[in-house]
Automatic annotation (TrEMBL):
Protein name listed in UniProt: Hydrogenase (NiFe) small subunit HydA
Residues binding [3Fe-4S] cluster, per UniProt: 262, 281, 284
Domain Cytochrome-c3 hydrogenase C-terminal as annotated: residue spans: 219-296
Keyword Hydrolase (UniProt): no
Family: Belongs to the [NiFe]/[NiFeSe] hydrogenase small subunit family.
Binding residue positions for [4Fe-4S] cluster 1: 50, 153, 187
Keyword hit for Metal-binding: yes
Top-level taxon of origin: Bacteria
Subcellular location: Cell envelope
A single Gene Ontology CC term: [Ni-Fe] hydrogenase complex
Alphabetical list of PANTHER family matching this protein: HYDROGENASE-2 SMALL CHAIN, NIFE / NIFESE HYDROGENASE SMALL SUBUNIT FAMILY MEMBER
Keywords noted in UniProt: 3Fe-4S, 4Fe-4S, Iron, Iron-sulfur, Metal-binding, Oxidoreductase, Signal
Length: 375
């Protein structure tokens, strides 16, 4: 059986080589065959979603997704992937939470639609009554061994909760405060992030989480820290338009405040990633996305340093080098978590229609900070 240490090594090796699933499958299949691993029962509920995370998950090419479903996991209910549909499929879901309490993983994909008691989002039908996403997620979530939210919408509300949020959508944690929700964020979440988290749960239990409930093994570092264009940033060489090869900070890149391992893992079997395509990171893994990260092509406002000194981010491009850039980056990160950037954004956007959305993002950050009690 693979040790946790070896598993963590494969997570990184698989990112660099682009074949995490391929590396992880043989030892796991062997362990499953030898009865060393309990095949993990998994049910997935889709709520307010574009189903992008299912499509992302299906991008595991080697081995195929079906190998994982049949050999390593007990993937019981997922209405996109199920061969049976309707009541027959729904019966499997009911059987799982009634007969396997505290033994299954609930995955939620999509935001929690709250308006009008959730009746814009029906996900089931029982005894002549429609069941809402919120109702089903609460019912199944309270009996699950683990609750995993995947994608930007399920984790923090995402685009579905974007200003003016007519459906009053929010993330799973907000409607399931009794449980600690594991957040695998991203728009969509990378297939390795989803599968790696599920495998960690199956083999070693809950992975170490950071303050916003994300597994540190995938969200432990900023995009900026590992970005291949970092040398441009450090030398103050900035692209002036999207599509150019230099650092994309001044055309809106949110890499300095975005936590994910995209630069080393990349997407579509390691084919490419946003910055590799000469477009800015838009911060899709962060709480408050997309409102807090909008406009996507504008850089952060001037950053106030303690003591009242103001540093204009444009001045970086005029030759502020090395250490100053690092200091600014560190400050941007600290500011985001302490709410300073949100305050500045609120000030600078007072006359724009982003204000309510940013207020919401600010309130959300406060909620998380209080919940995690870390700052
Ligand atoms: Fe890379 Fe964006 Fe950081 Fe520039 S600002 S180094 S493009 S992550
Ligand atoms: Fe999202 Fe940025 Fe990665 S936009 S996909 S976190 S590079």
């Amino acid at each position: 059986m693979l040790s946790r240490r070896d598993f963590l090594k494969l997570v990184v090796k698989g990112a660099v080589l682009g074949n995490f699933s391929q590396l992880i499958t043989p030892p796991l299949a062997k362990a499953v065959a030898a009865g060393e691993v309990h095949k993990l029962p998994v049910v997935m509920i889709e709520t307010g979603t574009c189903t992008g995370d299912s499509i992302s998950l299906d991008n595991i090419w080697t081995p195929t997704f079906s190998d994982i479903l049949t050999n390593i996991l007990d993937w019981r209910y997922d209405w996109i992937m199920n061969q049976v549909q309707g009541q027959e499929a729904y019966g499997i879901l009911q059987e799982t939470y009634e007969k396997m309490p505290h033994d299954y993983i609930l995955i939620v994909q999509g935001s929690m639609i709250q308006r009008d008691n959730g009746h814009y989002n029906h996900v089931g039908y029982e005894n002549g009554k429609f069941i809402t996403g919120i109702e089903l997620v609460r019912r199944i979530g309270l009996k699950a061994k683990y609750v995993v939210a995947i994608g930007s919408c399920a984790t923090y509300g995402g685009p579905v909760s974007g200003y003016p949020n007519p459906t009053q959508s929010t993330g799973v944690q907000n409607i399931l405060p009794e449980r600690r929700v594991i957040n695998v964020s991203g728009c969509p979440a990378h297939p390795d992030w989803i599968m790696g988290t599920l495998l960690h749960l199956a083999l070693y239990g809950e992975p170490e989480l950071e303050k916003f409930g994300r597994p540190k093994l995938f969200y432990g570092e900023t995009v900026h820290n590992r970005c291949p264009r970092r040398r441009f940033y450090d030398q103050g060489i900035f692209a002036t338009a999207i599509g150019q090869k230099e650092c994309l900070f001044r055309v809106g890149c949110k890499g300095p405040v975005t936590y994910s391992d995209c630069p080393i893992r990349r997407w579509n079997d390691r084919f490419n990633w946003p910055i590799g395509c000469n477009t800015p990171c838009i911060g899709c893994t962060e709480p408050g996305y997309p409102d807090l990260m909008s406009p996507f092509t504008s850089h952060f406002p001037d950053i106030p340093f303690p003591g009242g000194t103001k540093v204009n981010t444009d001045s970086i491009g005029l030759g502020v080098l090395g250490l100053t850039s690092v200091a600014i980056t560190g400050h941007v990160v600290t500011s985001l978590y302490k709410g300073r950037i949100q305050k500045n954004l609120l000030k600078t956007s007072a006359k724009t229609n982003h204000r309510p959305a940013l207020k919401k993002a600010q309130a959300f950050h406060k909620y998380w900070l209080k919940k995690t009690n870390k700052i």
